[in-house]
Design goal:
Length: 274
């Protein structure tokens, strides 16, 4: 079983509930945006109340997060909006403490339930700590998208990239009045959370701040238009390539057959990896 296709939901339509994972201290609330009921992997917004504390420890699965609001002290470092972190499975994680106004983060766990084990990371995989990523994304420069298809005016910040699989997470942004008059599909799972701004999708309507989708491979979507510009967090599980279609009614099966006939997709994001 895999996650169900979520074409668009808004965070306000998802209730706050306990996080569907073990070991996290009491007090936090979660909005689960999508989840695989078989494996427990999920994407969720976490609300950490003022002063909420989590001790040092580790997770048996890889977890990445992005701070949406407020501040979070990680170890000795005070982190705010735009802070991104990737902790591989078993990697030691410092203690967390939410700021005086609390904190909201979005968490992505794509390889299993994001349980937390306090204390020493005894089960850390060899070299796991070396794979940890901590980035203040507000200090990164924007790069023109390297993926063919979109017209000028789209930019990205690559936050995580896996050379062996093409998996990654990046911020995407457009200029105001951005017009992308094409319908496309991809070979990969594509997931997006709208951090700010807007973009209208011809297949599913307006994506505004707080909206989210989790889209399986080969689903046609578009065209696109942004009035005010957009800022979105996007995850992919393999190389992202744009295949274009003229008929929005094309089925997933038709798109899959066409893509497979074209062979292995080019990994364009690999050129941006540091």
């Amino acid at each position: 079983m895999a996650r169900a296709h979520v074409e668009q939901i808004h965070r306000d339509d998802v209730p706050w509930e306990p996080l569907r994972a073990e070991g996290w201290p009491a007090g936090l609330e979660a909005k689960t945006l999508s989840r695989d009921p078989a494996t427990g992997d999920l994407t969720a917004i976490l609300r950490l109340p003022p002063g909420w504390y989590r001790p040092a420890g580790h997770s048996p699965t890889g977890i990445e997060l992005f701070v949406l609001e407020g501040t979070l002290t990680v170890g000795a470092a005070r982190r705010g909006y735009g802070y991104y972190e990737w902790a591989p499975a078993g990697a030691p994680q410092e203690e967390w403490r939410a700021g005086d106004q609390g904190c909201e983060v979005i968490v992505f766990a794509s390889a299993g339930r994001p349980d937390f084990v306090p204390g020493a990371a005894l089960g850390a995989a060899p070299g796991a700590a070396d794979g940890r990523i901590e980035i203040d994304s507000t200090r990164l420069d924007w790069a023109h998208t390297v993926i063919p298809g979109p017209p000028p005016g789209m930019f990205i910040k690559l936050l995580r990239y896996v050379e062996s699989s093409g998996e990654g997470l990046f911020l995407a942004s457009t200029v105001p009045h951005y017009d992308y008059p094409k319908i496309e599909y991809h070979d990969c799972v594509e997931e997006a959370y709208m951090v700010d701004g807007d973009i209208r999708l011809g297949n599913s309507g307006l994506m505004s701040k707080g909206r989210y989708f989790w889209r399986p491979p080969y689903v046609s979507h578009g065209p696109f238009f942004s009035t005010d510009g957009m800022l979105a967090l996007i995850t992919i599980d393999s190389p992202l390539i744009n295949h274009f279609v003229d008929d929005p009614r094309r089925s997933v099966e038709e798109n899959r057959a066409e893509a497979l006939a074209q062979g292995k997709p080019t990994d364009y994001l690999g050129g941006l990896a540091q």
